[in-house]
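Quick log. Single chain, no ligands specified.
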Amino acid sequence: MIKIYDKYIFMQVLMATLVAIILFTVIWIAPEMLLKTIKNTIEGVYTPQVAAMVLICELPKILGKAFPVGLLLGTLFTFDKLSKDFELTIFRAAGMSFARIIAPVIVLSLIVTYLCFVTYDKLIPYSCEKLNEIKKVNPVSQYAYIKKDVDKHPLLGVIVSRYNRDSMENIIVLDFAEKVYSDLHPLTNIHVAETGYIKDSKWTLNNVISYAISSDGIFEEVSKVPTLDIIKGEEANNAKILMDYSTKRDREIDNADLKRYIKLLKTEHLDEEYRLNANKYYQRFIHPLVCVLLALMGCILGFSRPRERSLVGFVIAIGCVFIYYITLPFFDLLAEKGVLPPLLAASFSPILFAIATYKFYQSKELSSSVVPLKDRLKFKFTKSKGN
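-> predicted structure:
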C-alpha cells in the first residue's frame, strides 16, 4: 500500500530531479546552441517563431542525457538532505530497511526509464526530421553501392558522385565478371552517365557511355545508349534505403526503422555498418535502464553521517557519469571492428556501472540490519526490570 512516507520521498526526489533536469538543459543549451540561434535571429536568418521552434526541436536530444543525470543529482541531493536532517536515521531506527526506504525512488526511476526510452525512440527522430524541415536541410552526398554474391564476391558496383532524394549525378557502374581470381575481380563493362534517377523500383541512367572490356582488361567497344536500367525490383528498393540512411545518424531513426535497416545491412554483407548499428539498436533498450542504476547510486551516496561532507558524494557521482558517457564511443568502436559482439558492447558500460553501484552499497554497509526503536526500548525496559 502507498503510505505517507512513499508520497513524501517520491515528491521530494521528483522535485529535486526536475530542478536538476532544468539546470542541466540550460547549461547544455546555453553556451553554443542558444547563442547561435540568437545570432541567426539577429541576422535575419530565423524569424523569432522559427528560432523558438529550433530550440524546441533541439530539446529532445538534450533530454536523452538530462533524464538520467537529473535523476542521479535529484536522488543524491534529496537523500543527502534527509541524512543531514537525521530523517534517514529516524527511518532506519523505526525498522525500515534500505530496500523499503528507496522503494519510492525505484518507482520514479522506472517512470524516468520509460520516458528516456520514448525520447530516443520517438521524440529525437521526430525532432530531427522537423529540424531539417525548419532549416530546409536537403542532404547531398556521395554513395557507393556494391552488390555481392553469397561468397561476398562483387557482382555490381555503382558509384554516385552526387545524389539528392531521387536524382543522381556523375554515376559510374562497374560490371564484374563471374570468374574471380585470388587477387583480382575482372570487369566486363563500365557504364558512365552524367545523370540518373530512381523511380518505380528502378535505377535508370540517362545518356550512358558503355565500355566493353575483354578478359585481358582491354576496351573492346564503346557504345552510347539513351537510358539504361542498372538495378530493378527489391534490389533497387534496398539500395535506395541504404543510400538514404547513409546520410543519417542513428538518432534520426526510430527503433522499427533501425531494426529493418540492420537486417538489410546484414543481408547486403555490410559487416562493419551492421555491427555498429546493431550496437546502437541494443543501446536503445539497455541504456535507459541506467536510470535505475543512477537512482540507486544517488540514494547510496546520499546516505551519510550528519557531519560527513556531501561534496565527496557529488564528485563521485559526476565522475561516474562522465566516465560512463565518455567510454560509450570506445565500446561503439569495439563493436564496429568486431572486437566485441554488438550486444556485449552495448551492455558492457551498464554492467560496469552496476558493479560500481554494488561496491558503493557494500562500502556504506547499508545491508546491516537495524533494530527498531520500540524493540530497543523494550529490551532496555526488560533489562532494567530484571536488575
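The first helix runs from residue 4 to 42.
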